[in-house]
Amino acid sequence: MHIHTLRETRATPEADIRAFTEAMSRTAAGVCIVTTNGPHGRFGLTVSSMTSVSAEPPMLLVCVNRSSVAHDAIRENGRFAINALAAHQQQIASTFAGRSPSGRHYEFNSGDWAALSGLPRLLDASAFFDCKLLSALESGSHTIFVGSVETASAGDDPALLYSERNYGYAARLGRKACPTGTDSVLERTLQ
Ligand SMILES: Cc1cc2nc3c(=O)[nH]c(=O)nc-3n(C[C@H](O)[C@H](O)[C@H](O)COP(=O)(O)O)c2cc1C
Questions:
Q1: Does 57 reside within a domain?
Q2: Nearest CA to ligand 1 atom 19
């Protein structure tokens, strides 16, 4: 293992950034599309930074780059949704990361979106959370958006993962192989 000690000064930030992103690339994370809709526009953005904060009450967070077009809309609309992608939805991840092979970036015609009038919701996501924005904390280049979860839905398909700059899925978690189905979704509206 190569150990790089990050300097306290910002004299050579490139080396520090490289060491940080290289080490982060060896971790694994689920991939989500954070969506928002309202007077300040409808947007979707691929993120791997969604994390559960609390179960009682249900809260989650997502970190969004302040240079992203979705950033100000999430803050101003005061609502956002998390669509946790299923293993077969890699192309949707690319579209909402601005890397669509067809060149149509950030467009909701990639994927099967159930609702575009409210918060955009993917029909066959592995999970869906509808959130009210509770707080926004600027941190480095990003803002940490904390949301209070109002609806949580669990799908049937295993989650899409991102690690070593590649997409994949966890075949050894006792789940079925990479799915193609759009099975029913268990949904509960939280009290
Ligand atoms: C797997 C993956 C995870 C990402 N996670 C985040 C994230 O957590 N927060 C964020 O702001 N951007 C994240 N991004 C980057 C954005 O999706 C998007 O690619 C970036 O904002 C594109 O900017 P551009 O259109 O200006 O190139 C991620 C991208 C990928 C491919």
A1: yes
A2: 97
**If you average pLDDT over residues 172-177, what whole number do you get?**
60
Q: Is the dihedral of CA 27, 31, 37, 43 positive or negative?
A: positive
- CATH code of the domain covering residue 50: 2.30.110.10
Q: Would you say residue 174 lies in a domain?
A: no
Which amino acid residue places its CA nearest to atom 10 of ligand 1? 64
Structural domain count of the chain: 1
Question: Range of 71's domain?
Answer: 27-163
Closest CA to 126 of 63, 64, 181, 55: 181
* pLDDT tens-digit readout, 58-74: 999 999 999 998 999 99
Residue 146 has pLDDT above 90, yes or no: yes
Tokens of 136: 């926004």
